[in-house]
Amino acid sequence: EAAVTQSPRSKVAVTGGKVTLSCHQTNNHDYMYWYRQDTGHGLRLIHYSYVADSTEKGDIPDGYKASRPSQENFSLILELASLSQTAVYFCASSDAGQTNTGQLYFGEGSKLTVL
Amino acid sequence: QQQVRQSPQSLTVWEGETAILNCSYENSAFDYFPWYQQFPGEGPALLISILSVSNKKEDGRFTIFFNKREKKLSLHIADSQPGDSATYFCAASGWANTGKLTFGHGTILRVHP
């Protein structure tokens, strides 16, 4: 019944390898986001999208790409994973555009460990 | 540059006490301030929010006090319960209607029974 689902929930990757994190939402929201959470750093915005086939850079986009092939799906791609990208990644959708503020609805997170 | 700051980093209170979590910001363009609650192993979820045109917002045991002049706000949790033990994030955005939030580092709240 979860409206924002992420896969995989956990992944171990090797340095230099490619990693794709996927997100699917059933909220019918236009906006989707990828945030990164590190202990002691809160959440930081990596990429976001407000329409299919278009993505925007967030506050920390370096080393990440994003893809929005449809309204429901939003992927985060690490072409060359590095140790510093070990973190928990959260996808979210938002009713921004339908309301004047935009509540975020988060998935359960994807824990990425780069070795 | 940390635009949204929270204090304390962690807070422990006894059941029934009022927990006070503090937040401050630097960007005068911020107009919307939500608080998100996160339990271990879960994504954050919206708890309560306030717009800068108000100085107080209540929702049950949760109250936000907002001081625009000082760029400060606080979340008061009255009659704290063990189930309130979680990490609380203060966030901020402008009325740009994009949902882009800047988060603080969070306050870990522990409520002892």
Write the layout of secondary structure elements.
The complex is a heterodimer of chains A (115) and B (113).
Chain A: E1 4-7, E2 10-13, E3 19-25, E4 31-38, E5 42-51, E6 54-57, E7 65-67, E8 73-78, E9 87-94, E10 104-106, E11 110-114
Parallel strand pairs in A: 2-11
Antiparallel strand pairs in A: 1-3, 3-8, 4-5, 4-9, 5-6, 7-8, 9-10, 9-11
Chain B: E1 4-7, E2 10-14, E3 19-25, E4 32-38, E5 45-51, E6 56-59, E7 62-67, E8 72-77, E9 86-92, E10 102-103, E11 107-112
Parallel strand pairs in B: 2-11
Antiparallel strand pairs in B: 1-3, 3-8, 4-5, 4-9, 6-7, 7-8, 9-10, 9-11
Would you write up a description of this structure?
The complex is a heterodimer of chains A (115) and B (113). Chain A is an all-beta fold and 115 residues long. Chain A is 0% helix and 54% strand. Chain A contains no helices and eleven strands. In chain A, the strands form two sheets. In chain A, strands 2, 4, 5, 6, 9, 10 and 11 form a seven-stranded mixed β-sheet that branches. In chain A, a hairpin with a 2-residue loop joins strand 5 (42-51) and strand 6 (54-57). Chain B has 113 residues and is an all-beta fold. Chain B has no helices and eleven strands. In chain B, a hairpin with a 6-residue loop joins strand 4 and strand 5 (45-51). Classes of the chains: A mainly beta (115), B mainly beta (113).
Helix content of chain A: under 10%
Largest sheet of chain B: 6 strands, mixed
Radius of gyration of chain B: 13 Å
The amount of helix of chain B comes to under 10%
Compose a concise summary of this entry:
With 115 residues, chain A is mostly beta strands.
Task: For the structure shown, list the relevant keywords.
heterodimer, A: 115 residues, mainly beta, 7-stranded mixed beta sheet, 11 strands, globular, B: 113 residues, 5-stranded antiparallel beta sheet, 0% helix, 54% strand
